[in-house]
Structures are given as C-alpha cells and as structure tokens.
Amino acid sequence: MPHRKRASWRAEARAACCLSRSATRTARSDSSGKRYAGSGTGFAALPKRLADRYRWSWDHLRKIVRPAVAFEFWYSVLYAAALTPMAAWLLNRLVVSGGRLAISNNDLIGFFLSARGIAFLLFSLSFMLALAYAEQVGLMIIALGACLGRKTSVSFALRENIAHLPKLIRLGILQAACYAAVCLPFAGGATLTYRLLLGDRDINYYLTFRPWNWYVALAIGGALGATCISLVTWLLVRWLFSVPAVVFEKATPLHAMRVSWRRTRSRFWSTAIVLASLW
Predict the structure, then answer these.
(1) Residue 10: CB partners within 8 Å, gap ≥ 6?
(2) d(Cα 87, Cα 124) in Å, to the nearest integer?
(3) What's the CA gap between 173 and 164, in Å, rounded?
(4) DSSP 166-213
(5) Which of 237, 87, 236, 257 is nearest to 170 (CA)?
(6) Closest CA to 14 of 260, 245, 241, 262
(7) Is 45 helix (H, G, I), strand (E, B) or coil?
(8) Phi and psi for 44 in degrees, rounded to 5?
(9) pTM for the whole structure
(10) What does the pLDDT look like over 45-69, one tens digit per residue?
C-alpha cells in the first residue's frame, strides 16, 4: 500500500511539473492573462499580477508551515546523527597523527593536504551535498502536496528522502568532483602564493607587523578567491534544477545535470537573482 501511494504521488507530481512548464510556455505566448489549470491535478500556474502571486504564495505557505517545521526538526536530528561519526573520525585522525591532545594549525594543514585528507574532503562534500539535496526533496514534496491540495505527512516526506537518497548521493559525488576540479587550480595558486611570499616566517609575524608582501599575498588571494567563488556560483545556478529532475522526472544524476544546464541556458541571471533573494 505505501508503494502504491508513492507511485500515485509521483505520477501526479510529474503531471503537475509537465503542466506547469506547458502553462508557463503558453502564458508567455498568450496575452489574455488567463490562468491555466490542469483537470484532475489541482495545480495552477502562478497568477500574472504581482499582488495575486503574493496572495497565492501566502495561501499555500500557511498550509505547509506545520509539516515543514516538523520535517525540519526531524531532519536536523537525522542530519546531526549522520555527521557525528564523521566529526569523531576526523578528530581521532588528527589526534593520532599529531600524537598529542592539542591540535595545531600545521596539523590541520598537513592532514587536509594529504591523500587521506583530500579524500575526506571530497567524501564530506559529497555527503553534505546529498543531505542538503535530501532536505530540498522533503520540502519540495510538502510544498507540491499543498499545491495539489493534499496533506503530506512528515513520515511520507522522510520515506521519499530515503527512497531517493542513493541517486542524491551519486548526484552529490558528481557535483563535488566538478566543484573540486574547478577549485583545485585556485587552491594550488593560493598555496604557491603563500609559499613564495609568506613561507619564510610564521603567520603570526605577518598578522602583527604586516609587511608589504603580506598585502600582496592578500590581494592575490582575494582575486583567486573571488574568481573561484564566481565560478562555483555559476555552476550552482546552472545545476539548480538537477534535484527536481532526479525526483520528479526519474532522471539519472548525470542526465539531471544536463537537463538543468539546458533549462538555465538563457535564464541564468533571472534564476541567480531569485536564488540570491531567497538567500
């Protein structure tokens, strides 16, 4: 019975997503301002007037506040339970490698520059991306259920998270590898800058006296960091719709990334502005 309910919900969700895209395309080519609703789905496109959109959003927001807050609570508990073993393992590795209870900055740098530390960073980034995507899935399920006129329980949203978690983990691994490939040259440039300009003395000397090479290193590091953040943000926006494609369209992680890339090709700045306003 739960499987049958899940299959029915997914079919309605896919129909609602297809209807939404079709209605949006039709509304752009039609100036009559009609609202397009799908028969049997209870899903309607957003109203065209801004005041009506706020009213539409507020009506649906009131329906999802309680299940969304409950979902966030239980998801935070599961999130903390999943991250605690990783944090304990990292602390144990640092203490064992350093041979003392106090951990210095050199111990941290040495661990994260080692092969084991790089593997840990990639695994942690993939795992955290997968957990963040799972949180998005639960909230999207609750929100879409409200749009379809249904009450979505927290247990159902959590079950859907578990069902999609393998795909979300693979998606997180793919995107983490791409982010790491983008950031690696900038990390190498920052490391080279540090060794050439600041490698002669301890970092506390530069923090106290601030010679000229300190400011040069800061300028180079700032330029490298700003460029790296810009590229990562660009990729983040281009892959924004990969999670809905995995959940509602049954796409594979790689195909979902391609689908999202196509859908944001001519809508980068509008999508980025909406995303920045939500943050």
Answers:
(1) 248, 250
(2) 10
(3) 14
(4) HHHHHHHHHHHHHHHHHHHHHHHHHHHHHHHHSSSS-HHHHHHH--HH
(5) 257
(6) 245
(7) coil
(8) -130, 150
(9) 0.71
(10) 556 666 676 677 777 677 778 888 8
